[in-house]
Specification:
The protein contains 12 helices and 26 strands. The protein has 510 residues and is of the alpha/beta class. Helix 10 (391-408) crosses helix 11 (430-440). It is globular, with a radius of gyration of 22 Å.
Length: 510
């Protein structure tokens, strides 16, 4: 027996960074909304602590995805933490608020995504924001999302900026301002020592609304369609099956992994692949699951002589935006981030006390795929980002490692540094560094692209986020990014939710 929930104007599948925003904005405009979330209610206290995010890895609030073995990374399966909870990954990330570089969005526009250039999306960022310093040309005030500055930095975070500056890197006061390149302190999504997830910021204040229905622990199996239009979804809670109807539209905000999986389970995707999995083809959309990519990370780990003092903020207080030797892009392609805790490098020892200068590649050229492993929605899809398949990714990442080691060797860290653990003193040559990268390359937790937005037949969604070939169905999350932004993806995903809400109610043209 299948239970049918009362119909709503809109169904939002996924209560993460984008889905929370879409939900609130539709409620504000007088519509009824049914949010269907696979994860739990956000009651775990580690979610709400600005320093609790490491404890959330592999927790019940983590999908804990494993990639397929990566051919260019010693056939290792990479761990991809993703939020399985109200707030999605905004409930378990490192709280860093970075919009990305102007050229990211202008690049989308030149690829046929009209209305997504930087000047068009900046007002959406500003609208979302409640910056602690108030409104100015680069920041908003009065929006749902609290954004703070690092006011009491950890001494090693200060050392990182001082070391970078001594090596000739500029110092920037605001990565979201006029100058992104350089070393500086992050802005973070918190207020008064408490995490500001997208759910807590946007939806928690209106949970009592009679126009809002929230269903948690609910796995969406497929989108229901009638004569080429989405009319609802089928989902399970435990062993019980349910359906929910949408009078207006269905919005998939299930993320870079969940949204393409739901599309394919619904018969929307590469026809040959769907047929091979026994899924009846509704719309042959070959781009679904293509273009999967992610920022890469390599932990440059140091042992400290003694325990480091406890910090006051998010463990990720300072970072650097820079460019590799051969990078010709308009913005940076490297993002070393400093952690005053040990973020281990796979297959290397973990020191009792220490810190990490993590090399980050933020303009990867490698692309992979997401495919169904089974027509069973309970089975995780096959995620193959194909990391390091493009040689320029490897060389840029190694440039970043060398940059991190130069900073780590600075006299500014003399009071803290005992020894370098990873890649370690025996790693001297570029060939040694390549071996280190293949044995330890990790993720920056910023997977995107699997439902790429664009103007051509290879795109999954059009610039108004509508799924090609199906009426009444849109995707609004990081999966629609044609290319990943230059920095952490939470703020851009929130912007995508703001844009999607405007598009849904006709407040902006695509």
């Amino acid at each position: 027996m299948v239970d049918e929930a009362p119909a709503s104007d809109y169904i939002v599948v996924g209560a993460g960074s984008s889905g929370s925003v879409v939900t609130r904005r539709l409620l504000d405009r007088g519509f009824t909304v049914h949010v269907i979330e696979a994860g739990t209610v956000d009651t775990n206290p580690d979610i709400h602590s600005t320093q609790g995010w490491p404890a959330l890895l592999h927790s019940p609030q983590d999908w804990a995805i494993r990639t397929t073995p990566q051919r260019h990374a010693n056939d290792r399966s990479l761990f991809w933490p993703r939020g399985k909870v109200l707030g999605g990954s905004s409930s378990m990330n490192g709280l860093i608020y970075i919009r990305g570089h102007r050229s990211d969005y202008d690049g989308w526009a030149t690829q046929g995504c009209s209305g997504w250039d930087f000047d068009s999306v900046l007002p959406l960022f500003l609208r979302s924001e409640d910056h602690v310093d108030g409104a100015n040309v680069w920041h908003g005030a009065g929006g749902p999302l609290p954004v703070e500055q690092i006011t009491c930095p950890h001494p090693t975070s200060e050392a990182f900026i001082e070391a970078a500056a001594a090596l000739g890197h500029p110092v920037t006061e605001d990565f979201n301002g006029a100058q992104m390149v350089g070393a500086g302190y992050n802005h973070i999504t918190s207020r008064n020592g408490r995490r500001a997830s997208a759910w807590q910021s946007y939806v928690a204040p209106v949970l009592g609304s009679p126009a809002l229905t929230v269903t948690t622990n609910a796995l969406v199996h497929r989108v229901l369609m009638y004569r080429g239009s989405a009319i609802g979804v089928e989902y399970s809670v435990g062993h019980a099956m349910h359906t929910a109807r949408a009078e207006a539209e269905v919005i998939l905000s299930a993320g870079t992994i969940g949204s393409p999986q739901i599309l394919m389970l619904s018969g929307i995707g590469p026809a040959a692949h769907l047929a091979a999995q026994g899924v009846p083809v509704v719309a042959d959309n070959p781009g679904v699951g293509q273009n999967l990519h992610d920022h890469l990370l390599l932990s440059n780990v140091y042992a400290a002589e003694f325990p480091l003092p406890r910090g006051h903020h998010n463990l990720l207080e300072s970072q650097l935006f820079a460019s590799s030797h051969d990078w010709q892009g308009a913005g940076p392609n490297l993002q070393p981030v400093f952690l005053h805790v040990v973020y281990p490098a796979e297959s290397y020892p973990v020191p009792e006390h220490g810190y990490t200068i993590a090399a980050g590649l933020i303009r990867p050229q490698s692309r992979g795929t997401l495919r169904l492993a089974s027509a069973d929605p309970q089975t995780a899809p096959l995620c193959d980002p194909n990391v390091l398949s493009e040689s320029q990714d490897m060389e840029a990442l190694l440039d970043c490692v060398e940059m991190c080691r130069d900073i780590g060797a600075s006299e500014k860290f003399n009071a803290w540094r005992k020894e370098e653990i990873a890649p370690g003193p025996k790693t001297r040559t570029r060939a040694d560094l390549r071996r280190y990268a293949r044995r330890s390359v990790d993720t920056y937790h910023h997977q995107v692209g699997s439902c790429r937005m664009g103007a051509g037949d290879a795109a999954v969604v059009t610039p108004d986020l509508a799924v090609r070939g199906i009426a009444g169905l849109r995707v609004a999350d990081a999966s629609i990014m044609p290319s990943v932004t230059s920095g952490n993806t939470n703020a851009p995903s929130i912007m995508i939710g703001e844009k999607a809400a405007d598009l849904l109610v006709g407040l902006t043209a695509p």
